[in-house]
Design goal:
The complex is a heterodimer. Chain A is of the alpha/beta class. Chain A has a domain of 114 residues: P-loop containing nucleotide triphosphate hydrolases (Rossmann fold). Chain A is 34% helix and 27% strand. The relative contact order of chain A is 0.17. In chain B, α4 packs across α9 and α4 crosses α11. By secondary structure, chain B is mostly helical. In chain B, the strands form two sheets. Chain B has a three-stranded parallel sheet. In chain B, strands 2-4 form a two-stranded parallel ribbon. Chain B has two domains: 76 residues, STAS domain (Transcription Regulator spoIIAA, 2-Layer Sandwich); 229 residues, no CATH class. Classes of the chains: A alpha/beta, B mainly alpha. At the A-B interface, α2, β6, α3 and β11 of A face α2, β5, α3 and α8 of B.
Chain lengths: 260, 352
């Protein structure tokens, strides 16, 4: 199947500290690709590099057949074909939910009548079950609703590729589950491919098609969820079974001299 | 070998003094700790023994533990090394390198602000022809927030300072019989210098800090990234409305403040120098010409740009948490004021 995103030998660092040492993977059309790994392994850094919010050291990223090198930013056309759901929602605080969701429309189709934009936004808010919050401000809604509102904004232009940074983190189990269902529904109805950064095991089991597991700046495993869960690799076993690896305690003791 | 007898209970309350004594002895030679009375220890005891063991290793002297009960012995045998990792060295201690780093940072920031200026001018001029176009509602909102709402504080401050300045000048001028020159001197000074300078310094504290805090908060909360992800240039969406708003309002604010400053000066002229309103106005007219207005407006405009662009740049470059917002705000005000005063000096050489 056609790959709509290809990350090729990506390297990135913060100052002198190398975070991503060599990352290569692809995303096929219509699949949900998850980026997994322990906290601090560079998942969000990878997302920021793919989205070109920060410059990479080397490597290329190919979106819809168009290749961007490490120092190159994404063009407007590519940005409009992708959507991003940020961890915090990142809604603009002084705009209503509808105005937030309308921003991508205003950018891509500035001469579209406002009534038409509002109709499109209403449709997207309906899709995320948030039509009732149309005129509300981000400060007036809950965390889960903010994520759904941000999702409505991310899908406003019916993107072909959606990036989600820890979509269900910080949500209660019911809201998290409903957001997962929503992502699956969007994939099925709109055919959106997704790259999702997460370490929420419940969500991973529900929505993941294929995953890349990051460790020490490299891709530790690239495979399907089934392959990951059946893997005998101790790191993946610990991750998928929520096990704590045996602590490697220091054996460096003080040698006290006791006399009786 | 010196022997120190430990108390029956080793706690945080008594271990500090004891540790000091033990360290002193261990520096001088071998030390024996008699634990025959020791029955209980709290959380601080592990660190007590660990520090002494470390010191013994460092000095090469012996630390012996005598007559400890089996439980405490077993506990101490299991005690793992409690050495915190060395603090990573940040930056450099070399003064020349530090100065170089500061210089480089200043040059980089100046370059960033210049780039921001060109981008803001580009989007202001070509924005209306671009897909994204300028959001005039946003400009009006910023004009109200950053300009109109600052009018009160600007005229109050400039008015009071001009009043004080006029009073002090009148005393000196009256002493040499030159009270009649107060109006022309004040008029020139207020329109050419005090008006634009003080207004923009007040604006940097009031509106510049607001811009920096707002944009820094947006950067920290990923809102700037969200704007970028929607193919909207942050400069066009965040900087341009503020840039246009302050470009329009700063010269107006400066002019209003100067008028109030002159009126404040009139009070002094009237009560202390016996100058009538018509004479005062004629004096003002003698002191300033159309070029003074033009130069004053140019100064106010440039100072307004300095306030906006430095605040926006600080805000856009903020990253981290709430601390970054405070840092960006403070730094924006300090940098703006320094740059305004520096530019004012340059203008003085260019214009006069």
């Amino acid at each position: 199947m056609e790959e709509i995103l290809k990350v090729d030998h990506l390297k990135a660092s913060y100052g002198k500290e190398s975070i991503l040492k060599d990352i290569t993977f692809g995303v096929k059309k219509g699949e949900i690709r998850m980026v997994l790994g322990s906290s601090g392994c560079g998942k969000s850094t990878l997302l920021n590099n793919i989205l070109k919010f920060i410059k990479s050291d080397s490597g290329t990223i190919t979106y819809f057949g168009k290749t961007f090198d490490a120092k190159e930013g994404l063009d407007s056309e590519t940005r409009m074909r992708t959507g991003v759901l940020f961890q915090s929602g990142a809604l603009i605080a002084d705009l209503t939910i509808a105005e937030n969701a309308m921003l991508p429309l205003k950018r891509s189709m500035p001469y579209m009548p406002k009534s038409q934009m509002e109709a499109i936004v209403a449709d997207r808010l309906e899709k995320v079950h948030l039509l009732h919050a149309f005129h509300k401000y981000p400060g007036e809604i809950s965390g889960g609703m903010k994520k759904r509102a941000a999702l409505a904004r991310a899908i406003a232009l019916k993107p072909e590729l959606l990036f989600c940074d820890e979509p269900s983190t910080g949500l209660d189990p019911v809201t998290a589950r409903s957001l997962d269902e929503l992502l699956l529904e969007l994939r099925d109805t709109l055919g959106v491919s997704m790259v999702i950064v997460s370490h929420e095991l419940e969500s991973i089991k529900i929505i993941c098609d294929r995953f890349v597991y990051l460790k020490d700046g490299y891709v530790h495993m690239d495979g399907t969820l089934q392959e990951g869960m059946q893997s005998e690799d101790p790191i993946l076993k610990h991750f998928f079974n929520r096990q704590c690896p045996k602590e490697t305690k220091s054996t460096d003791f003080y040698n006290f001299e006791f006399i009786d | 070998m010196v022997t120190i007898v430990l108390p029956d209970s080793l706690t945080a309350a008594n271990s500090k003094e004891l540790l000091r004594n033990c360290k002193k002895q261990l520096h001088m030679g071998d030390l024996c700790l008699d634990g025959s009375n020791l029955n209980t220890m709290d959380y601080s005891a592990d660190a007590f023994f660990a520090l002494l063991a470390e010191l013994a290793e460092k000095t090469g002297n012996h630390l012996k533990l005598a007559h400890f009960n089996d439980d405490i012995k077993a506990h101490l045998r299991d005690l793992r090394k409690m050495v915190p990792p060395a603090r990573p060295q940040k930056g450099t201690n070399n003064v020349i390198e530090m100065l170089g780093g500061v210089g480089f940072a200043v040059i980089r920031e100046a370059f960033e602000v210049l780039v921001l200026l060109f981008m803001a001018i580009y989007w202001t001029v070509f924005g209306p022809f671009d897909k994204g176009k300028i959001h005039f509602g946003g400009v009006a909102k910023q004009m109200f927030k950053l300009g109109s709402e600052a009018l009160g504080i600007c005229v109050l401050m400039v008015g009071l300072i001009c009043l004080t300045m006029a009073l002090q000048s009148s005393v000196m001028l009256n002493a040499v019989g030159g009270g009649s020159y107060l109006a022309s001197g004040l008029g020139f000074l207020i329109f050419a210098e005090i008006g634009p300078l003080l207004t923009t310094i007040i604006l940097s504290g009031r509106s510049g800090s607001a811009i920096a805090a707002e944009i820094a908060n947006m950067s920290v909360c990923e809102e700037v990234k969200a704007i970028k992800s929607m193919a909207i240039p942050p400069v066009q969406y965040l900087v341009v409305p503020r840039f246009i708003a302050l470009s329009i309002t700063t010269p107006i604010l400066s002019f209003c403040s100067s008028i109030i400053g002159c009126l404040a000066g009139f009070l002094i002229a009237y009560f202390f120098c016996d100058i009538s309103f018509s004479n005062y106005m004629m004096g003002i007219r003698d002191g300033i010409d159309p070029m003074t207005f033009l130069k004053s407006s140019i100064k106010a405009l440039v100072f307004g740009w300095i306030v906006t662009l430095i605040a926006c740049n600080k805000g856009l470059n903020a990253h981290g948490g709430a601390e970054a917002v405070g840092k960006a705000t403070t730094s924006s005000v300090v940098t703006s004021i320094c740059c305004i005063v520096l530019s004012d000096t340059l203008f003085a050489f260019i214009f006069y």
